[in-house]
Amino acid sequence: MSALHEKFGLTRVINAAGTYTPLGVSRSPQAVRQAAAQALGEFFVMDELQDALSARVARLTGAEAAVATHCVSAGITLSVAAAIAGSAPERIAALPDTNGLPGRIVLPAGHAVNYGHPIEQDVRLAGGVPVLAGSEAGCTEAELDEALGRAGTGALLLVSSRLVRGAPVDLARAVALAHRHNLPAILDGAAQDLRIDELLATGADLVLVSPHKYMASPTVGLVLGRRALVAAVRAHEKGIGRAMKPTKEAIVGLLAALEEREALDLSAWRREQDAKVAALVSRAGALRGLRAEAIADPAGMPLRRARLHVDPQSAGLDARSLAHALRGGDPSIRVMEHGVSEGVLDLELVPLTAEEIDAIASRIETLAGTA
User: How far apart, in whole angstroms, are the C-alpha atoms of residue 5 and residue 150?
Assistant: First the structure.
């Protein structure tokens, strides 16, 4: 661990919980760190940085344009603001007061998630009114169509993840429904930066991703899609977006991260990730009371996770107790705990070194062996 932990008295962490904001999200590669550090010592015309980013993203993805925001949460708010107020300066200055403007944003009810705060709050910050279609059990096309027909501003859709509830929504069909009502569709694909092409192919007007997750840039949001709407998102930096603007080091770091992504051999990367998971699964699965397997990412990212099934009768401790013990050690090992009530722990190993994976396996071996 770095000297920063010692200097400031911080908890040493091995993050097997994924690109999780409370744990610092990800690790940037050296080229990205160097670019961001260099940017801190320079002055820039910030509009030129945004122009350079838009051109680079358009070339890589085929999107018409792109803009950086502070994060995807900010990107949601500013995308909603763009749908409500467009680029008109007087409307931008008035937000979040939407008096006289349509402001109803439709979400499938199961997409009204809490990812540290309610996503509906992102809508309300722009003056929008969230309208939930269907129920947490699911949202049919007829229910979505009916809500879009009476809402009149736009649709906000989430890529399916462990936070999304209910039956999956066909994103391309949902986007088509929004377009049938002449409404823009905003697609939140925060942790889906390896699937940008696929998300753009849904026809969504705006696609939002978090490059600081698997692209490992500094903290920044990326909004890409239709040129006019992207321009409107950007225009709101002179309004409520002033508090949501990206920094120079974030944009420069993102440009460096895009270069790294362009050079990535995805097949080799996947083999590397599979090998990490296989190593942990092999060691953990050999322990009494533990069954280990590799599982696909539930939202469709091209990576696998390690899943541990904990049998408390044989292991001598349950999944919750194992997670608690891992978290309480030094270094603190964090895992995905959303399945503890079913006796399941998931571990994502993408940013971790072989030494860290060995440390996780050794800790599990110790805990399972002494329970």
Answer: 53
